[in-house]
Amino acid sequence: MALSVYFKKLTVVAALNGVLCALLVYAGAGFTGIALMTTFFITGTLATSWKVDLKRSLKVAEENKGQRKTSQVLANAGVAAIAGLMSLIFETGQTLWPVLIAAAFSAATADTLASELGTVYGKRFCNILTFKPDLRGLDGVISIEGTLIGLMGSALIAYIYAIGFSFNTSFIIVVISGTMGNLTDSFLGAWLERKGIIKNDAVNFLNTLFAAASAALMWYL
Prior knowledge:
single chain, mainly alpha, two-stranded antiparallel sheet, globular
């Protein structure tokens, strides 16, 4: 928290909320959960800072030099924190909550890396709804390169989850649900965010929520 504030990656209030989310994530997934949250934060911060001058020239760089506010913290870590809270309330399903936490961070990581690095390394950009060429950086615009980078982000989170728990079908669940959440983010961006119906923080929250719900469905199937 102190380092995040010192390096101006989080506002003070955002850092305090981040600590609360981290405590709930720890309740649901232990130190592995903290590792997942830290991995998301570090990779997201590095990706946001990568080739920032190019992003500024394209007018797609984040505002406030990438310093995140409370709403952004809750949008990305809120679902994982809720899963951690549920683990404290319900005695059953203790093996499920870590999977949901991992799925939420898998989607958040995939979305951030796909957006931040896909904008830099993508070659051809298209609207996810129409698959017609579109301007990079716009809501709902994807590229093959960005999607693959997002997939690697999901795999990284799944790998850390597997180290902490076990290499089983949950690994695949976390990768798939994270990728689905990432694509859902783009879909909502093209469909609703462009129209001004919802904002980016809401899109990110729904992205991670969909990923967690997808993971729960695959878990029980």
